[in-house]
Amino acid sequence: MARHTGPKSRMSRRVGTRLFPKDEKIFTKRNFPPGIHGAASRRRISGYGHQLLEKQKAKWMYGVLEKQFRGYYKKAAKKHGQTGSILLQLLETRLDNTVFRLGFATTRPQARQLVSHGFIEVNGKKVSIPSYQVKVGDQISIRESKAKSKNIENLKTIILKAQPPEWLQLDPRALSGRVLSVPARETLDATINPQLIIEHYSR
């Protein structure tokens, strides 16, 4: 599956928000859009432009391509409730994002790699699909056969200090976590305005 392979800091500068942990230093120095006219640009962004940027921000943050992201929107639109909140809940409960939220990885791309390479199991069974949707009651663990690998050994200190959101429960010494509830709107990423995304797809 094709993914962005260029500098991730340019993506953060494009949408005006730090999308990845390592972007903080660069984003602080260059808090303007990329390109030769980025710092001097005074171009006004249209309503459609704001909607598009918000969609791009969410896509890049969760590492989802357009076709899949549109699928999440359609799925959210069919459910009862606020479509925007449901959309974010679907993104949050992807397995790769859940692994990231539990502290098993320092970034979402790293979490996606752990899942794809077979490091993660759900309810005792290996799952290697990053987009797998976790449910309330699911137990997400690092597989016992992978627990002593160099990748995980390097992460154990970080996992011990992890503070997952309230919809997740972590047992850091067992390298395991559980989904306690559906993510509440107030626990979701406040930098994303889902209403703008809904307006974009409703045009």
UniProtKB/TrEMBL annotation:
Alphabetized, the UniProt keywords read: Ribonucleoprotein, Ribosomal protein, RNA-binding, rRNA-binding
Superkingdom of origin organism: Bacteria
Q: Which HAMAP family does UniProt cross-reference here?
A: Ribosomal_uS4_B
GO annotations of cellular component type: small ribosomal subunit
Q: Which GO terms describe its biological process?
A: ribosomal small subunit biogenesis; translation
Residue span(s) of domain Small ribosomal subunit protein uS4 N-terminal? 3-92
Q: Example GO molecular function term?
A: structural constituent of ribosome
RNA-binding among keywords: yes
Q: Which Pfam families match?
A: Ribosomal_S4, S4
* Family of the protein in this entry: Belongs to the universal ribosomal protein uS4 family.
Glycoprotein as a keyword? Answer: no
The record's function comment reads: One of the primary rRNA binding proteins, it binds directly to 16S rRNA where it nucleates assembly of the body of the 30S subunit.
Stretches assigned to the RNA-binding S4 domain: 93-153
What is the name attached to this protein's record? Small ribosomal subunit protein uS4
Subunit info here reads:
Part of the 30S ribosomal subunit. Contacts protein S5. The interaction surface between S4 and S5 is involved in control of translational fidelity.
Which source organism does the UniProt entry give? Candidatus Doudnabacteria bacterium RIFCSPHIGHO2_01_FULL_50_11
Name of the encoding gene: rpsD
